[in-house]
């Protein structure tokens, strides 16, 4: 009597390092090693393969060593701000097709905002005490393309900034430095603003002087007398 025994696939057991972490801009690679056991002859291994995930690529060798390369140009990666994370979960398979997941944590970093718009203005002592403008901000990090409502005191006045970038500068016309400016003289008030992520940007205000009338006082009368007192004086 002949008995034929047909084999079936026994699922492999995969273990080892199945997590890793990378960081946008600064740490783009992570690696680990998986192990595989399989009672089925010749199936206790992997195949050399590159597996594209949602945020990067995992390179797997037949002995289970793997390296993950973050795609730092991916918009989702670039949109991660400091303290935020995303996950790339990649499924690998042993020789018999047994699946196993490798999970990569992607940490965000702060991308410097780009600030543009009108960053200069001019005011004039006594006659034109206000000037205004509007700044623009772009930031690839999600939720950081804005300013905060704030009042920033400079050396000669105050700049009022709104969250959408509109600003108004009010000159302190009582400031002695302002009042000391003569016609044709100027002073500068440079104020630093910050976008939501802390990116600094300078707004420069030129303060023009005017002629302030002199104040003349003292003795402005005198008296003389015919024949007897021919002179008088004062200061």
UniProtKB/TrEMBL annotation:
Residues 2-68, 101-169 form the RapA2 cadherin-like domain. Pfam families: Cadherin_4. Gene3D superfamilies: Immunoglobulins. It comes from the Bacteria. NCBIfam families: VCBS_repeat. This is RapA2 cadherin-like domain-containing protein. It comes from Aliivibrio sifiae.
